[in-house]
Write a structure and sequence with these properties.
With 280 residues, the protein is an alpha/beta fold. The chain has a single domain, classed as Rossmann fold (3-Layer(aba) Sandwich). The chain has 11 helices and 8 strands.
């Protein structure tokens, strides 16, 4: 009987949930690799929505001002849960962890705190923040020019405590597809939009992480550059790699390039799974 390789732990980004990895998980299984996708706090089955998001008639001013029910979810909370998920998934062995977008911030802190839980870190067009730099700093850098996700916001994150998007607004749908789902079949993109949470906690983006050579800096890491990304432009992705390699030159980042937009788990799940399977 064949023994599956792995396990691989799959971590989503803002607004998404474990659901977004279903096609990749299937492709990994077809390649003999076991995987499990998990929800971050405030996302997926752990999401909590502002009351104004479902109240009818919809009142935009209420939606733009109601305090987020996930405003208290910070990076500490996300990293603590992720470390426990890695521990349970690995059952005593370190896991290969694959993080997308803002899931990379949670993975970075979890790996710094618990390097023994991770055999390899894989960042798929993800935030891989440098030591002591919070993720919220990066969208204002020149390398982030052209990013589209902040243009989707329906509220001031400083007021409501979350990055809030009205995912039910039909007029906003083309902009969401452009920011998140370039290269994805429109029917699949629309189905994904229907599954998105309407907000993600600002606090997850404001906490810096101090990285050390003995912990995060010692774990093998791979960065999957997505060259057509409208949410984390490729220049910003390359900056993450450059900063990591400058800080930890003894353990340089292995880089793989995909001609993909922000969501290769939907636009090319077979190719992404092939990359991940080759790393396990």
């Amino acid at each position: 009987m064949a023994v599956l390789k792995g396990p691989v732990l799959l971590v989503h980004g803002f607004y998404h949930g474990a659901w977004c990895w279903s096609e990749v998980s299937f492709e990994l299984a077809a390649r003999g690799v076991a995987s499990v996708a998990v929800d971050m706090p405030g996302h997926g089955l752990k999401a909590r929505r502002p009351a104004a998001s479902t109240r009818r008639p919809h009142v935009p001013s209420d939606f733009a001002s109601e305090k987020s029910p996930v405003a208290d979810v910070g990076l500490d909370t996300a990293a603590t849960l992720l470390a426990e998920q890695a521990r349970r998934t690995g059952r005593g062995e370190p896991v290969t962890a694959v993080a997308h977008s803002m899931g990379g911030a949670a993975l970075t802190l979890a790996a710094e705190r618990h390097p023994e839980l991770f055999a390899r870190l894989v960042y798929v067009t993800a935030y891989m923040p440098a030591s002591d730099i919070p993720c919220i700093t990066y969208p204002s850098l020149p390398e982030a020019e052209g990013q589209q996700s902040l243009g989707l916001l329906a509220a001031d994150p400083a007021v409501v405590g979350a990055l809030r998007v009205d995912t039910t607004d039909d007029d906003l749908r083309p902009a969401i597809r452009s920011a998140f789902y370039g290269g994805v079949d429109q029917d699949i993109a629309d189905a994904a939009i229907a599954l998105l949470g309407c907000e993600s906690p600002t606090a997850m983006a404001t906490q810096p992480v101090t990285l050390t050579a003995q912990r995060w800096g010692s774990i093998p890491r791979t960065y999957v550059l997505c060259t057509q990304d409208n949410t984390i432009p490729v220049a910003l992705q390359r900056l993450f790699v450059t900063q990591a390699d400058h800080a930890f030159p003894q353990n340089r980042t292995h880089v793989v390039t995909l001609e993909s937009a922000h969501s290769p788990f939907l636009s090319m799940p077979d190719r992404l799974a092939e990359v991940v399977a080759g790393l396990v």
